[in-house]
Amino acid sequence: MVKQVLSLKARALRYLSMREHSRLELGRKLAKYAEEGDDVDALLDFLEKNNWLSQERFAESLVHRRAGRYGNSRVIAELQQHGVKGDDLAELKSGLKESETARAKDVWRRKFGTPPQDAAERSKQMRFLVARGFSSSAVRAALQGGVDDDDDF
Hints:
Layout: H1 8-18, H2 23-31, H3 40-49, H4 55-66, H5 72-81, H6 87-111, H7 119-131, H8 136-148
Helix pairs in contact: 4-6, 5-6, 6-8, 7-8
């Protein structure tokens, strides 16, 4: 049985058919398979020109996948690692900022569901939310909301 070798373009399209990729991420993946004479940057330009590769779609996809479980700082850091910057990043930051407290409350409810009984438990819950990338103000609001908002289920 002979194993078929995929062209760089076919490999790129296969990756993009599975999920959205950033230009930086796709470039790294394709560079492993590039042979002499292959121009990865030209291929990435071609994919962007044909709208198969979109930094904007990638950013929206990543925010959609991560925002329900992580705070702003974690999501923004991941976007920056993938090369998202400038106006796109600023726009995403403002959108995330509006919903951070509600997302922190939701994550807290799913993980803990009951208010902390003592200082040690409160510290544990706060550390969990901070490690998830939520701001200290969102963490405080989530913990206070857990005490006050039990009636709104």
